[in-house]
Amino acid sequence: MTENEHPTGASGRRILLREVRPYGTGDPVDLLIDDGVVVGIGQHSGTDADEIVHAGGAVLLPGFVDLHTHLREPGGEDAETVESGSTAAALGGYTAVLAMANTDPVADNAVVVEHVRRRGREVGLVDVRPVGAVTAGLDGKRLAEIGSMARSPAEVRVFSDDGHCVDDPLLMRRALEYTRAFDGVVAQHAQDPRLTPGSQAHEGPNAARLGLAGWPAAAEESVVARDCMLAEHTGGSLHVCHVSSAGTADFLRWWRARSTAGSVSAEVTPHHLLLTDELLETYDPLYKVNPPLRTDEDVHALRTALAEGVVDCVATDHAPHADQDKDCEWSAARPGMLGLQTALSVLVRTMVRPGLLDWRGVARVLSETPARVAGLSRQGRPIGVGEPANLTLVDPDTEWTVRGAELASTAVNTPFEGMVLPGRVLATISEGRITARDGKVEPIGGRS
Ligand SMILES: NC(=O)N[C@@H](CC(=O)O)C(=O)O
């Protein structure tokens, strides 16, 4: 299948969205979709539609694209599968997700990435795009089969050792050079391992009080600075995963003002926009994550950087873990948090309600920029006639209580357990097919 075909299968149906507000502005309009494409925006009678969705003035956005999802298949199916993760993604408003390579076996060759892409198509709820590993077996020693993954039917464009840092500067340089040849991107988990041996939490007074080994922000900042320089030197494309510190944001601001070559994009996670290391007090491993939750000052710097476009997108780092890996003492627990079904709500709470981002800004950080970074030409498009119908309908006002057990993931490790958050996804439309509506995915059998 090529980029121009319909990854989740065009419906051939006519769907009328009644009374939607594209980007949350203006008077409500009706939007007509036919065979996967938006064919009309304005007033429509609805008499010739197969299906009508009454939106009541809800906000319409381009479908969300997650650059950083751990789907755990193959090898970690007790935490998540392509099917359960795709379900969570569709319910969270996503029409495409990039599936990280730290599976078992590692996605460092064409066979594994093709398997993941195929499973995504079989499930058919979101466009699942495998990320390829940068180094074989994520060992940081030699490059993975980057070219063969890029040329394979899985069409891999983003490469990452996420969970591990590509800390050898020569390998990082080679990866940036190599991926440049096919417009690829290296997504770096920036963490100097020599500065973070045995690290458990943000290095600061809270970790010290609890006797937890620290993960200093400098371990991230120094790698980001080095990699930006390597991107400029090689002309390659660097994507910085999960920016977590005020210092990284400051560096990127400075870098963007002076850089002349290469390309740098950066993501922040919803949890780093809301949560701080004060939560360590609970000693609850739900709050253990890599990079760690940091301070209030970092949270505010990250919000400002996202509003300014210095950090240019939001990615979930959705990291499901089975109960036995979270329901244990802090130091034995695996780092990571669920994120797909709460990302929009956390963004509404941290950025939209405080006036830091409007809905156009939300479309930019959740959809347009991630689609551009991933090279997905059918995603992150403007809402307009002739465009592919990858869309998300949002009720900005309704508040809901997060319950891990009610989320679609196999794992339940949400750090937002019990929190009341604003904003709900009413419906997700992928290539003209309703994939999620009113908190339920639409069965694939319902597709014509
Ligand atoms: N972000 C996380 O805390 N966890 C990630 C990998 C990682 O970055 O350690 C995971 O795969 O679980």
From TrEMBL:
The keyword Hydrolase applies. Zn(2+) 2 binds at residues 162, 189, 242. Pfam families: Amidohydro_1, DHOase. Its cofactor is Zn(2+). Binds 2 Zn(2+) ions per subunit. Keywords: Hydrolase, Metal-binding, Pyrimidine biosynthesis, Zinc. The active site is at 317. Substrate binds at residues 70-72, 102, 290, 321, 335-336. One of its GO terms (biological process) is 'de novo' UMP biosynthetic process. SUPFAM superfamilies: Composite domain of metallo-dependent hydrolases (SSF51338), Metallo-dependent hydrolases (SSF51556). Residues 57-245 form the Dihydroorotase catalytic domain. It catalyses: (S)-dihydroorotate + H2O = N-carbamoyl-L-aspartate + H(+). One of its GO terms (molecular function) is allantoinase activity. It is an enzyme of class 3 (hydrolase). Catalyzes the reversible cyclization of carbamoyl aspartate to dihydroorotate. Belongs to the metallo-dependent hydrolases superfamily. DHOase family. Class I DHOase subfamily. This is Dihydroorotase. It comes from Actinopolyspora mzabensis. The lineage of its organism: Bacteria, Bacillati, Actinomycetota, Actinomycetes, Actinopolysporales.
